[in-house]
Amino acid sequence: MAQDTDQGIVATSGDGLSAPVQVHARGELSRRLEQVTRVNLRPIASPLPIGFIGLAVATTMVAALNLGWIPATEGKAVAFALLAFTVPTQATATVFGMLARDGVGATGMGILTGTWGTFGLVMLTSPKGATSDALGVLLIVSAICMFLVATGAALGKIVPALVLGGASLRFLTAGIYQLTESTTWETITGVVGILLGVIAIYAAYAALLEGIQGRTVLPMGRRGRGRQAVEGRLAEQVVDVTHEPGVRVQL
């Protein structure tokens, strides 16, 4: 609606408020919201080292079982290690990864937690040396999901992406072994598991040193926002925080 006044035509809304009044009202509302709304960020230690260490233990122990370095009679001991050591460490990394606003890392750790936990429970309740088609299907689906997460991680950090990509390959080969019962695939997944353990230990140590020194010591392959996370100023890190989950109105 428009009204003809001495100052000319002033646009008004259906409630009779002029445009300048509406703008002032919105500005006043924004000011008051800013006064009562606070977004608190709490520094935490990086959860990546403990998550990668959990992965290194799991993949190395299961690989040793695949390669015959650990006898099949000790399969239940390996299962207990997965449930008592790997699951808690990676679950912790999942929770604190979310709190650290790293959705990619937290998602990867969450998939690892669920996969190794299921692996351990199946081993614990199955006869020694037995395979499982159901576990094989789970491992292949987990491999696909881990590959997707690894591609996302590669946009910011190459070394963690290699770890997640290696975990994807590890689950894929293990899934094929579970479905085929082939001794060849058992050996392949064992070798892949050992290599993944080496990469995971390197990634854990590099992330640990980075946290201690406050800078990159061993190469992590950071680029883009991954590099900005370590080298950027505070303002660059929080400029878009109002649009992140937990702050914005919808996920």
Explain what the structure shows.
This protein has helices spanning 19-36, 48-66, 75-99, 103-125, 133-153, 158-180, 183-213, 225-231, 234-238, and strands at 2-5, 8-11. It is mainly α and 251 residues long. A two-stranded antiparallel sheet has the order 1-2. Helix 3 packs antiparallel against helix 4. The two termini are 37 Å apart. The radius of gyration is 26 Å and the shape is elongated. It folds into 2 domains: 1-31, no CATH class; 48-231, AmiS/UreI transporter (Serine Threonine Protein Phosphatase 5, Tetratricopeptide repeat, Alpha Horseshoe). The protein contains 9 helices and 2 strands, in the order ββααααααααα.
Question: Which whole number gives the mean pLDDT?
Answer: 84
CATH topology category name of the largest domain: Serine Threonine Protein Phosphatase 5, Tetratricopeptide repeat
Write the element-wise H/E pattern from the N-terminal end onward. EEHHHHHHHHH
**Major sheet: arrangement of strands:** 1-2
**Domain count:** 2
Query: What distance separates the N and C termini?
Result: 37 Å
- The helix-and-strand class reads mainly alpha
Outline the biggest β-sheet. 2 strands, antiparallel
Overall shape: it is: elongated
The CATH homology group name of the largest domain: AmiS/UreI transporter
Can you count the helices?
A: 9
Q: State the CATH class of the largest domain.
A: Mainly Alpha
Poorly predicted parts: 1-14
